[in-house]
Amino acid sequence: MKSETFNLSKQILHLLxxxxxxxxxxxxxxxxxxILSGKDVLVQSETGSGKTLSxxxxxIEATEKSKGLIAxxxxxxxxxxxxxxxxxxxxxxxxxxxxxxxxGVSIEHQMRKLRKANxxxxxxxxxxxxxxxxxxxxxxxxxxxxxxxxxMLDMGFIKDIEQVLKHIPDxxxxxxxxxxxxxxxxxxxxxxxKEPVRVSFEPTIKPEYLRQTYYRVQSKxxxxxxxxxxxxDRELAIxxxxxxxxxxxxxxxxxxxxxxxxxxxxxxxxxxxxxxTEQFRRRKFSVLIATDVAARGLHxxxxxxVYNYEIPKDTxxxxxxxxxxxxxxxxxxxxxxxxxxxxxxxxxxxxxNHKGVINLKYAxxxxxxEIPITEDKKEKRFSRxxxxxxxxxxxxxxxxxxxxxxxxxxxxxxxDRFNKKVRQSDIERPKxxxxxxxxxxxxxxxDFDDEKFLRDLLNFDDTFSKSERKKAKRF
Length: 475
Known about the structure:
single chain, alpha/beta, 7-stranded parallel beta sheet
């Protein structure tokens, strides 16, 4: 980065050069001058665009000239909190103290470190706990950064954020970053930002770098297909699921089948989540099973494949997922497994709204040893002898009928000494409770109707899209 372009100090430029950063990204070229000029900023930018450094550099520059706590960065997840803290520490001098505040660890230790902090990176819930304990004073804050604001709203942090903002002076510079600008984000910005500079960047997913495909596969065959694909040559892969329980189960099943995998979800302790993330970053294992929330803000270089084991419920989540790969000019592949029901319904929305090209593949192209094909059970036919035994001879049959007749008379209480004939109609015959019915062969279920799927997609209109979106939000 050139000093004359951004008016940066030589100390900052030296630290950037040591990290190999000499050219600013398009996001940084637009945002850094706006922040340095003292204006509020509303930025729509995808993950991995260099936005963290775009607000870190101006804040660090201001910290060099001031003392005390001057900057607060609020983020949605613990992982993102740690990663932004690491970025600030990487480009700051030793006398600048950066403190991270998040749940799952000792709050007393965090409160002790806050006394000398110049920059605080925090999640809303833990920060509010410390404020209520009077462990931090935010009256000196000059810079407020709301990073990944759309995800914080999705996670229900809006009330916590508003409570925190009550303790921050109105005379401040507010920087809001979001992957999407929804009505809620616009409302939030109009309430807390003053005449902001609006910067918007379209997602930079290029077809020549990111290959997007999907398989139409039955739910019971998803695991076998995933095992087959993961056993091919690849570096790092993230498998996304919608449920925490699914991540745990899938990680165990993959490991049993020879693919070493670990899960990352919100039920894990903070120490374990950090340990798993660091092991994945250092390539101690190559397959990470994660939920959207757990993987939010996860910046790991070298991810070559992203798998949607369960289809996300909206296009934005799909974009966030596939954005984990094909970064920094490297190629990657995003693969989705689409089965009937909810998967198919949500994927229609993605196909209709997503701007990229998603190609169809068929699971039938793989070997049966990897993808077992279950055939319809054939009706087994039995011979008469197998069902009833061998036919008796005429002599043995007469003897059998005579013995059966005597038995019937004994059961009815009659005796030969009365010399009374027992009529055949008086004998109570045993009732036949089972009947042999000819079973028709079961019809093989067709998991997908290709023509219907494509026909529905072609007839997909805006009214249908809105109604489907409303249904999707209920989940």
